Amino acid sequence: MPSPSDEVAPVLIVGGGPVGFALALDLAWRGQRSVLVEREPGVAPVLLAKATGLHERTMEVCRRWGIVDRVVEVGFPQDFPGDSVYATSLNGYYIGRSPIPSTALRVTPSSTPEKRQRCPQYAFDPLLAEVVADMGLTDVRFGMKVEALEQDEDGVTVHMTETATGRPETVRGSYVIGCDGAGSTVRQLIDVPFEGPDLDYSLSAMIRIPSMDLPEELRDGERYILLSPEGASSVMTSINGRDIWRLTVVGSQERLNPETFDMHGEIVRALGRDDIPFTIERVAPWRRSQCAAATFQVGRVFLAGDAAHTTSPTGGHGLNTGIGDVSDLGWMLPSVLQGWAGEDPVAERNSSASTSNYRAWFDSSEAADVLDPGPAGEKARSNIGKRMVKELYGEWNSLGLDLGYRYEGSPVIVPDGTPEPPDEYSGYTQTARPGHRAPHAWLTDGRSTLDLFGQGFVLLRFERPSDGEDRLEHEAKESGIPLRVIDIRQPEIADLYERRLVLVRPDGQVAWRGDELPADARALLSIVTGRGGRETHLRDAESPIEGRQ
């Protein structure tokens, strides 16, 4: 049992990386207080830079928070090229290129108000931390290590120590969210297996290169996938669009021992010249994996981000998937704490697409002659270049994966009988089918439809109300459920949403749609807030247009 002296926090977040701070920010944006603890003395410095790409879905969340301009300000220069170049070295043989426009030239997809941005994690993390501090609703405590936790039916008691002094501290949380990475202490303390394959062992060097004058056909790359006769030997990636680069070498743990591996020589090999000045700032080993926790929830403890699932960085879906977790938990936790939703937050995403991208990188079937200066080498380089451009198209063009997420079969979604559309990696067609992201369209006042969502449920109404249609508002008010009814009189948006009435959750996902409200409005609200189960849905809240195609 908790001690009367235990400090109480509605939500205790463990982990001060991008997922932890994003969750704290989303909670604060909804007016919810939290405590965030991190064992390190501060947010990640430059030398720990990891992710650089913020996909459309993540930028939509940043739009909700009102920080898009600040992300752009600290991110890559907008005119920095984004091409992926395949070569034997940065000054070696050209193999192929996947053209990717700079952010300035990239066209915003018609299905979203935002285009993806490139922002190094070492800049994104402190930005989130700064915004969280400005909101004033999160108690952030660096230098605190979680040692143990104890659950009971009312909450979780977390025992910590201050890393600098060893001083013990105890915090009592209604809910605890482990956002503490692939080696999650929280996950270990709740004894949840973390299973899946290790894909490789890698060694990465963070490098400062003041300037590089590359051959014309090898210029304008954001990343260089470098091939040897054994296949892709290393990857050189720009981390800030300026002077910081990361070289990642793949191989066995024995060969890539940081204490013995000749990283300086490997960098010279990657550059293809020995007269380009550079400084090695940091060398760190890591494992590429595709693992997932056996469950993302044990009682009042949840896992998010890499603590719940790891992905290969090929495609840049790890950080972005973690922000997707936040999009779920950020509204569900306050709804439970405020008493208007059932206790069943969920988070789901997988990393198989990233693994597929990674395997395409390291196919060595045609690489034996890649360094041959003669006809055999030219043929090998041409064949490899064509294959990589084709097979890696999805890695650089993943709008379908980013925006096409859906909750098929969820007990808090009311299906309308329409068939599930294809789940495509690159292509994406908007749909207001229940379980899917509510479509973006521009309103006459200049806002996006997405700007209507976030604070509570929204019922979109595309025609004048019929008699008795206010009963959903009445039932929501009686139940303490935040709900707004918004009338839209734009035929093109009505056509996009396909039904006269569409109920959208706080995370922007469609929960229900129909041409008429169900007879039992209370049952509908019970389902979409997690208070009722599937049996209630089938008995009381069946859409009057069930089965319509």
Enumerate the spans where pLDDT stays under 50 for 5 or more consecutive residues. Answer: 344-358, 534-549
What's the structural domain tally? 3
What's the Cα radius of gyration? 25 Å
CATH architecture of the largest domain: 3-Layer(bba) Sandwich
User: In the CATH scheme, what's the topology name of the largest domain?
Assistant: FAD/NAD(P)-binding domain
Task: Characterize this entry briefly.
The protein has 549 residues and is of the alpha/beta class.
Structure description:
The chain has 549 residues and is of the alpha/beta class. The protein has 3 domains: 204 residues, FAD/NAD(P)-binding domain, CATH 3.50.50.60; 163 residues, D-Amino Acid Oxidase, Chain A, domain 2, CATH 3.30.9; 134 residues, Glutaredoxin, CATH 3.40.30.120. It contains 15 helices and 23 strands. Strands 1, 2, 7, 8, 9, 10, 18 and 19 form an 8-stranded mixed sheet that branches. The longest helix is centred in the middle third of the chain and has 21 residues. The N and C termini lie far apart (54 Å). The C terminus is likely disordered.
